[in-house]
Task: inverse folding
């Protein structure tokens, strides 16, 4: 991938932070998760967010719930897609075709996880993303894929 | 699958409803979803829950969020496993190996969906479930799989 | 799904058998597998093929190879799609978006398996299929999904 | 991952090449594919093979068959696992739990592809691998996962 200028990188961050804030305001299913994540690294097509594993994100084993991990694969895959175009506020609307997640290790309550999402193919109709959640020892918690179908009109 | 007596079926329902209530009380990641589902059909290894698509379960298109669907595939797959053994309150603890979901149609806000989960293979180490979410026209909203690894001690 | 007349069912069988023969003739990656399967049950959108687990389809454990199972999920998912329209020889061309397979049991060499494929959603752009391979005791060997993207021109 | 000495790397290559030759000799489902791949890069837990897209590996569009790609995700994920332990000829036997593949681009007949497989988690019971097939322009053809369950006795 070609190098971006610092100005472009700043625009990507501004856009992603703006979308995040807007979505938290929508107060929908992902609002609680979105309110906990923080962009720590980014470039065109690729983002890393950090998140604290708060107790209300856990399962009965006291570790990050598999459904929360799947929702992160869903939402942050979309963020990776939006990072491809730094134009403020525009998004190419798309719908989910599939999500899959492989659970390799658990992330205990109150630990920090890092969610790496990457858009590795942006076709005219289909967009492909992959997401890896790692714990603070850089071990893989899960790896997931999220494939989306592009709707035609820009939003 | 062999037929169950009405008494066995009653015990399965009692067990599942008891687990549901207990888990809602844990107030963890799935509590909000769990508080919205209602067991409408069940037998050994197979459950159907109904759910209203409340606004707080939606995405920005006003339809059931893909992450909520994945969480239902996760949690109700586990319920299908627990329905295999009607003994009250006991569960064989297990952890997720993978979840995958294919999104076929959307389920609009305020509609009713039916979540069908089925455990089609219970091995010594691995348990396999499949889940189909349907809308009220009996169309498939999504189909998903949830595979779990069995931990040895009963809870 | 609405009932089909016997005449329609005959046309579907004729079409599927014709496509199978044609493809075996192409002598491509799936030719060997295709030459071993036999249509035993069918309706609009749904097919069942039987197959003998010949030694050359096995892995080093002497059971049906996971790659052969994945290829069956691929190819027979497409057959289920083609069974939707009984018009002879026409197919709506489409390309694979994803395939996933969960391996529940093994199918030993020289046993018979039954491959059930079903197209549960035919959208304008995306088509969704599910496939279950069962052994001769009606146990699940694997369950898989195959999602395809529809190309516009008919072939 | 810690650096390996040149001697260790040589032992890994010798082991993998030996297993490949042995398996081709078994003449089973994957023998044809295995006879076409060549190890071009490797370290502990990670391998890259190159392969020419021969006509008999293609589909009716003249590109690498989705079933062949899934079989590569299966087999080379196992090779990545075997590369973890350089001891000659020993393998920890394991069986497939799931395979999933996302198809991003096609690889035309007679082009060269590079298959990158990586074992990112080796647990006591479960082993997780990911595989990316790239074309000669370094674009992603597909990304897949292969999860295996470890059988206890060494072979």
Result:
């Amino acid at each position: 991938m070609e190098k971006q200028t610092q100005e472009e990188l700043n625009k990507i961050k501004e856009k992603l932070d703006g979308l995040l804030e807007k979505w938290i305001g929508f107060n929908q299913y992902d609002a609680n998760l979105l309110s906990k994540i923080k962009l720590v690294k980014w470039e065109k097509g690729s983002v890393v967010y950090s998140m604290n594993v708060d107790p209300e994100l856990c399962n009965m084993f006291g570790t990050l719930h598999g459904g929360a991990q799947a929702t992160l694969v869903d939402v942050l895959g979309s963020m990776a897609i939006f990072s491809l175009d730094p134009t403020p506020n525009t998004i190419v609307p798309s719908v989910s075709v599939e999500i899959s997640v492989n659970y390799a290790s658990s992330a205990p309550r109150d630990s920090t996880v890092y969610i790496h999402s990457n858009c590795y193919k942006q076709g005219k109709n289909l967009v492909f993303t992959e997401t890896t959640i790692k714990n603070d020892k850089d071990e893989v918690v899960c790896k997931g894929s999220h494939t989306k179908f592009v709707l035609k009109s820009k939003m």
